[in-house]
Design goal:
Length: 109
């Protein structure tokens, strides 16, 4: 694990979800080297999907930009040492899939 404390940049998550995200990042860093950012992101994303339902996205690395739309209460950006982690649940995915499904059902009927 990287030495040092996680520093939260931006979040709108409840405190307990924030702590879960930080704990999962620490656990991921126990399993993977900091250079294995994709594996770290995959680990955190899958654990959040399991704990809070599908639709979570995770980006990890030392240099990236982003502009995302997220569900209210489902966003955190934090750093542990030089590793930055962005974790969010997309807001358009669930509604878009439901609308698409409804449209397909209407066509079949």
């Amino acid at each position: 694990m990287l030495e040092g404390k996680a520093v939260i940049g931006e979040t709108d998550m409840l405190q307990n979800m924030q702590q879960v995200a930080l704990d999962l990042a620490a656990k991921a860093l126990d399993y993977f080297d900091v250079t294995e950012a994709t594996d770290i992101a995959r680990f955190i994303k899958k654990e959040f999907d399991r704990a809070y339902g599908p639709g979570w996205q995770c980006i990890a690395g030392t240099d990236f930009g982003s502009f995302v739309t997220h569900c209210s209460g489902c966003f955190i950006y934090f750093c542990v040492g030089s590793l930055a982690i962005l974790l969010f649940r997309g807001s358009a995915g669930s509604d878009a899939e439901a609308t698409q499904f409804s449209t397909l059902e209407a066509i079949k009927a």
